[in-house]
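Project standup — Tuesday

K.O.: blocked on the structure for the chain from last sprint. Re-posting the sequence here as requested.
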Amino acid sequence: MHANIISNIASGIRTLFSSGHGMNGHSTAENEFWQRKMLTHFSRMDINGDGFVCRNDFKSTVKLLTSKGKLSEQTAFLIQRLVIQLWEDFWCCGEDKGFDYQVPPEEFVELMANLLKLSDCKKLLEEPLGLLFGVVDMDGSGVVNLKKWTIYNEAIGISAADAKHSFEVCFDQKSEISKADFIAVGQVFFTSVDEKHNSRHLWGPLI
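H.V.: unblocked you, prediction finished:
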C-alpha cells in the first residue's frame, strides 16, 4: 500500500475514534503507535497492494511460499487449508458478509480495537496466531528457524534483511522458535502500546 494512502487511512481512523464512533474511550485503540502496528500488519496481508485484504491475498501467499520454499504439492495443500481457515474464521467476518468479502483497513483496525474490549483478548488471539505459525512452519516440524521465517517474510513483502532483524530482536536471538514463542510475541504486538517492546518488529518495519 502506498505511503500516502496509509497516511490518509491513519488520519481517518483517528478521526473515527475521536468523533465518538468505533472504539472511542479505549486508550490502546486510540493510540497512534498501536494503529500504525495494525495498519502494518494489514499491509503485509494485502499481498496485491490494492488496499483491501481478501481470500485471493491469502491464496497468493500460499503460491509465493510454494515457489520460494520449493514446497511439495501436499505441503502446499496443507498450508492452503490453514490460510483459508485463518481467512474464513478470523478475517472475513464469516458468512455474514461472504467468504469473498474484501476487508478495508479501517474495518480491520476497528475489529482489532473491539477485540481489545474483551477481558480475554490475549486468549482469543491464540488460535489465529497458532494458525499463522503453522503457515510459517512449512514442514510441520513444530519449530521455525531463520530460513523458514525469511521465506515467509519475503512472501509477504518483507526483505530478507528485515526478516533477519525481526527474528533476532523479537525472539531474543534464538536459533529456532516454538508456537508458544510466536504466540507470546504476537499477543504483545496486537495489544501493547509500548513503543520500546521488540514485538513491534514482528511484521517488519512499521509503515
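K.O.: great, moving the ticket to review. Residues 2-25 have pLDDT under 50 and may be disordered. The chain is about 60% helix and 5% strand.
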